[in-house]
């Protein structure tokens, strides 16, 4: 090849390369522009025409709390089916799930009796799943106070006593969910470890940073072969006072009475709505929250907010005339609070459908961290997806969402992680500083959810679902 030809060849090559670079960056920027316009229209619609707040009002004020197995949970399922039909999902059905049934009933009271005879009332509520105290005979015993489960091992002074678990959530952790996670072994396993040491009951300091007189309920467990002893949550203020009294008066006694009970399992189910994909209908993107709540308060933040975020996502994507490529599955899960049987059943069916070659569950997103102002998203997926997820971060900057990190996606979608084809899983991350003020209490009511913050959460969820649908690579 002579020099001229060689130069020509180089020039042509350069042009081709330049054209390629230009067209690639052009397509990237046009995709970016297109995404950013769609996201802007989602935000505009929810902030002007949003129906999410009124939907939360109807769930929380019309039905109220809705523990699995309860009549209210049945009502909530009907409410969910009706609303998803109203927003014109292609099909809406109930996926049957057998759920536990337990009720705290109407009595939960406690008092401390000091050696001199002085008495003080203590604010308690039954932990979910606890047995009742002996009938016609309140539980009365001396106490011991511990902060960690392993403090009970090898002790001979626990027999016949009530154990107060008094470890606070770690205040220095900025992530309140992590502080909660670091303290809830007391609530989950306290009754088991205390009973092994011979205790007759447990009181567990409420899981909150708040210092108040409101007890926070939540799930607890028993172990086969270990006596089932009554377990109650005690407010943070009462736990502190009781521990102080005990220091000064180790012979004080606590008396408590509860008539909570377990009943037979009940048939309920996950409410599922589908919007069939236009290009890959067999590829499923799941989004949801949990329809059940604890049986005090109204389950407004936990997880009424996640339920209406999910339903509003359907309304919003229809409102902007979006056409999903994949099938979007809107799931109102049952029984997150005391068993996660809804989430487990959903994953079991997903696995069977995958094995039969019918469907592949490529992605899932959950909102179960409250209705507060959204801060961003947690990604729980294999490394290959991380760059794609991070590439969307810039699109959310105008909306003050900056948290794009690896982390927990959600309890209900959790079992999907075990699928052979591990899905791309995302959790909505709202501001968590006040979540545990309300969590599992009588204060988790509609009035404590802020309209605009709730709307912003729905826009964040709808935008993320749209990006997943548009850009997640197609499976072979
Ligand atoms: Zn929840």
Structure overview:
- There is one protein chain.
- This protein has 476 residues and is of the alpha/beta class.
- It has two domains: 44-102 and 264-471, Aminopeptidase (3-Layer(aba) Sandwich); 107-259, 3-Layer(bba) Sandwich (Glucose Oxidase, domain 1).
- Helices cover 37% and strands 24% of the residues.
- It is built from twelve helices and 16 strands.
- Strands 1-10-12-11-13-16-14-15 form an eight-stranded mixed beta sheet, sandwiched between helices. An eight-stranded mixed beta sheet has the order 3-2-9-5-6-7-8-4.
- Strand 2 and strand 3 (119-122) form a beta hairpin.
- It is elongated, with a radius of gyration of 26 Å.
- Residues 1-8 and 19-23 have low confidence and may be disordered.
- The site of zinc ion has 5 residues, from helix 7.
Q: Keywords for this structure?
A:
476 residues, alpha/beta, Aminopeptidase, Glucose Oxidase, domain 1, 2 domains, 8-stranded mixed β-sheet, disordered N terminus, binds zinc ion
Give the secondary structure arrangement, pairings included:
Layout: H1 3-49, H2 52-62, H3 71-86, E1 91-103, E2 108-113, E3 119-122, E4 124-126, E5 139-146, E6 162-165, H4 176-183, H5 185-196, E7 201-205, E8 231-234, H6 236-248, E9 253-258, E10 261-275, E11 280-290, H7 300-319, E12 326-333, H8 341-355, E13 360-366, E14 374-380, H9 386-391, H10 393-396, E15 403-406, E16 424-430, H11 435-438, H12 451-471
Parallel strand pairs: 5-6, 6-7, 7-8, 11-12, 11-13, 13-16, 14-15
Antiparallel strand pairs: 1-10, 2-3, 2-9, 4-8, 5-9, 10-12, 14-16
Bound molecules: zinc ion (ZN).
């Amino acid at each position: 090849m002579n020099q001229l030809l060689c130069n020509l060849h180089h020039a042509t090559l350069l042009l081709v390369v330049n054209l390629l670079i230009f067209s690639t960056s052009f397509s990237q920027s046009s995709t970016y522009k297109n995404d950013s316009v769609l996201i802007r229209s989602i935000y505009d619609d929810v902030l002007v025409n949003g129906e999410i707040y009124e939907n939360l009002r109807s769930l929380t004020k019309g039905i109220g709390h809705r523990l699995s197995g309860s009549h209210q949970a049945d009502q909530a399922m009907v409410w969910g089916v009706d609303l998803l039909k109203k927003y014109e999902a292609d099909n809406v059905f109930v996926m049957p799930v057998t759920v536990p049934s337990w009720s705290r009933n109407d009595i939960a009271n406690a008092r401390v009796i000091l050696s001199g005879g002085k008495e003080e009332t203590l604010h308690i509520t039954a932990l979910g799943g606890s047995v009742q105290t002996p009938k016609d005979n309140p539980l009365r015993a001396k106490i011991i106070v511990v902060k960690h489960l392993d403090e009970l091992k090898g002790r001979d002074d626990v027999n016949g006593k009530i154990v107060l678990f008094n470890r606070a959530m770690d205040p220095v952790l900025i992530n309140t969910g992590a502080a909660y996670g670091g303290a809830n072994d007391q609530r989950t396993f306290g009754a088991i470890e205390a009973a092994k040491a011979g205790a007759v009951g447990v009181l567990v300091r409420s899981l909150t940073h708040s210092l108040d007189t409101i007890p926070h309920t939540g799930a607890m467990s028993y172990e086969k072969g270990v006596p089932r002893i009554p377990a109650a949550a005690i407010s943070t203020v009462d736990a502190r006072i009781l521990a102080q009294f005990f220091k000064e008066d180790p012979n004080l006694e606590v008396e408590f009475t509860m008539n909570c009970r377990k009943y037979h399992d009940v048939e309920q189910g996950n409410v599922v709505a589908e919007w069939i994909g236009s290009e890959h209908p067999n590829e499923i993107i799941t989004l949801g929250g949990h329809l059940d709540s604890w049986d005090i308060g109204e389950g407004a933040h936990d997880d009424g907010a996640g339920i209406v975020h999910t339903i509003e996502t359907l309304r919003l994507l229809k409102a902007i005339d979006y056409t999903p490529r994949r099938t979007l599955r809107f799931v109102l899960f049952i029984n997150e609070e005391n068993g996660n049987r809804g989430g487990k059943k959903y994953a079991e069916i997903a696995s069977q459908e995958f094995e039969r070659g019918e469907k592949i569950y490529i992605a899932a997103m959950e909102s179960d961290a409250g209705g507060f102002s959204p801060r961003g998203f947690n990604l729980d997926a294999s490394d290959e997806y991380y760059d794609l997820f991070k590439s969307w971060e810039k699109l959310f900057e105008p909306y003050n969402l900056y948290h794009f990190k690896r982390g927990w996606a959600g309890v209900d979608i959790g079992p999907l992680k075990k699928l052979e084809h591990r899905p791309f899983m995302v959790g909505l991350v709202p501001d968590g500083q006040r979540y545990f003020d309300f969590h599992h209490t009588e204060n988790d009511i509609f009035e404590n959810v802020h309209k605009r913050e709730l709307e912003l959460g729905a826009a964040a969820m709808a935008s993320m679902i749209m990006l997943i649908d548009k850009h997640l690579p197609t499976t072979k």
